[in-house]
Amino acid sequence: xxxxxxxxxxxxxxxxxxxxxxxxxxxxxxxxxxxxxxxxxxxxxxxxxxxxxxxxxxxxxxxxxxxxxxxxxxxxxxxxxxxxxxxxxxxxxxxxxxxxxxxxxxxxxxxxxxxxxxxxxxxxxxxxxxxxxxxxxxxxxxxxxxxxxxxxxxxxxxxxxxxxxxxxxxxxxxxxxxxxxxxxxxxxxxxxxxxxxxxxxxxxxxxxxxxxxxxxxxxxxxxxxxxxxxxxxxxxxxxxxxxxxxxxxxxxxxxxxxxxxxxxxxxxxxxxxxxxxxxxxxxxxxxxxxxxxxxxxxxxxxxxxxxxxxxxxxxxxxxxxxxxxxxxxxxxxxxxxxxxxxxxxxxxxxxxxx
Length: 354
Prior knowledge:
The protein has 354 residues and is mainly beta. The chain has two domains: 19-128, no CATH class; 135-353, monomeric porin ompg (Porin), CATH 2.40.160.40. The chain has one helix at 19-35, and strands at 37-41, 46-55, 58-63, 67-72, 76-80, 85-89, 94-100, 106-110, 118-121, 125-128, 135-146, 152-164, 168-182, 189-205, 210-221, 226-230, 233-242, 246-261, 266-282, 287-297, 305-316, 321-332, 342-353. Strands 11, 12, 13, 14, 15, 16, 17, 18, 19, 20, 21, 22 and 23 form a 13-stranded antiparallel sheet that branches. A five-stranded antiparallel sheet has the order 4-3-2-1-5, covered by helices on one side. It is elongated.
């Protein structure tokens, strides 16, 4: 029997027309696997996915298998990325480069084609893909109205905003407080509180923790017979913590105080020292506490000093709506004649964050 010659286009056996498509699919899967970011742990384990960000000693990582993960940098030996990422170093330097595979303890930064790679100790990495620089803050308002045997009304409005970059920080604040009450005997209404202030501060960071500052505060309190107080100042600060759950800084410097009083008319000017600290503590994603203290002792009279302080809680009701409860204190060791040294306020307000 005569056998027919084998047909190279035959569909029999393993030589099927689908074979080129299988090869293409395998090639695509291989390219996808190679193109993923990779983290090498000190234990020798590897994890592929996408490096999203690094901050506060932790890496945010997206794995197709395990989902979104939070990894400790202390557990990571090195990592690589498929494309350029923004890296911020401990000295404030910002780079946009690709992290190539490297030995444990270092990151190999791969710049543009033709340029030599740079080895960076992993310990020098402060942030990766940091949040864009923008203003953050809140506007909080409160009001109380009473009618009947008690006839009074109280209103407060406060705003604060901060813009933080890798090298500087701008802080702004303002507040107004007013209170009126009617005397049931005379039926006359009197103002029991009427004060406001504006303040601003600029911080320039020399390192991740040390900075120099310049600030200015302007305030007025009609009930305390304070027509105006202007207090510009200069000094240095230290940022002890700056994390998502906690920020804490201390400051020291000098301020120049200019005050105008009425009844009787009087003007005071003097040089003062300045000590201050600022604390924000988040208990969870919805509730945080804050506490600020500023102490300005006169360098000319030991019995003259000013204190500004507040402490409070802020709870998130929605993504942008908050409930705030706080106490404020303003102390003047040398007030105007027949005026108290302390002014205490307890405020409950509803606010909007941005």
